[in-house]
Design goal:
Elements lengths: L6 E3 L5 E3 L1 E4 L7 H13 L3 E3 L7 H10 L8 E6 L7 H15 L4 E7 L4 H17 L2 E7 L26 H10 L4 E3 L15 H6 L5 H10 L4 E5 L3 H11 L1
Parallel strand pairs: 3-4, 3-9, 4-5, 5-6, 6-7, 8-9
Antiparallel strand pairs: 1-2
């Protein structure tokens, strides 16, 4: 585990680094590959990708080329499908992600944005079976709200854009009550920035003299969530680590 970043405990009892590099804004090919390689050299140990990003192969190649032990790096990917979710399609999607990454297994796999309510149980059951096979270690959901929650019962509880302007307090409370780890994607709200008065009081104090994106990162690092930040520049990636370290 990188000395820079704290971690949270998942239901599997494995740790997830509290800050991830997300490659949503990294184009497939050299850009995604170099962003991941640079982040790993700086000390990141959590990389967040998805089928929708179309750069899983580049992420896997960068991790293999980094010279860092696979066991030290936490990888998240996500299944995305615009048509009807089904058990078979989700299971095939997980296997395809694993093949593209080429890392043996995936540490965390998420259902990316909700499909029709009557297909969610099938999709979640597929993830549970992929977990039982050892293809993925932990499973969860992305961009689900309390109103779009999974049908009950399920064998495994899931491990959502979240930032100071979109705090989702009801969802946060639900996750806390259910023992679910919340991961905050787009913690900088795609670079919109934030007024200092919108930050929690403790963040206002620490934010004096910092850029707005740095203040948002302080908010994330002092909360109970895991944060994913997209950055393809060495400067910002390094500064994010210095803030949360």
């Amino acid at each position: 585990m990188s000395a820079f970043v704290q971690s949270k405990l998942l239901p599997s009892w494995y740790s997830i680094p509290s800050l991830a590099l997300g490659v949503f804004q990294s184009n497939p090919g050299a850009e995604a590959y170099n962003a991941v390689l640079t982040a790993l050299k700086l000390g990141y140990r959590h990389i967040d990708t998805a089928t929708f990003y179309k750069n899983e192969r580049d992420v896997g190649r960068a991790i293999r080329d980094s010279g860092i032990s696979r066991e030290e790096i936490f990888v998240t990917s996500k299944y995305f499908e615009t048509s009807r979710w089904s058990y078979q399609r989700v299971a095939e999607g997980v296997r395809e992600s694993n093949r593209k990454l080429g890392l043996g297994s995936i540490d965390l796999y998420l259902l990316h944005a909700p499909s029709e309510s009557f297909t969610r149980a099938e999709a979640w059951s597929a993830l549970e079976d992929m977990q039982a096979e050892g293809i993925v270690r932990d499973i969860g959901v992305s961009s689900f709200s309390e109103e779009l929650k999974l049908p009950k019962p399920s064998r495994v509880k899931p491990a959502v854009e979240l930032h100071p302007r979109f705090a989702r307090r009801e969802t946060d409370k639900l996750c806390e009550d259910q023992g679910i780890v919340m991961e905050a994607n787009s913690t900088l709200a795609f670079g919109e920035g934030i007024a200092y008065q919108e930050l929690p009081r403790f963040c206002q104090t620490e934010a004096i003299g910092r850029a707005k994106w740095q203040s948002w990162t302080i908010w994330m690092s002092t909360s109970s969530v895991v944060g994913t930040r997209s950055s393809s520049t060495r400067f910002r990636s390094g500064h994010l680590l210095s803030i949360v370290g």
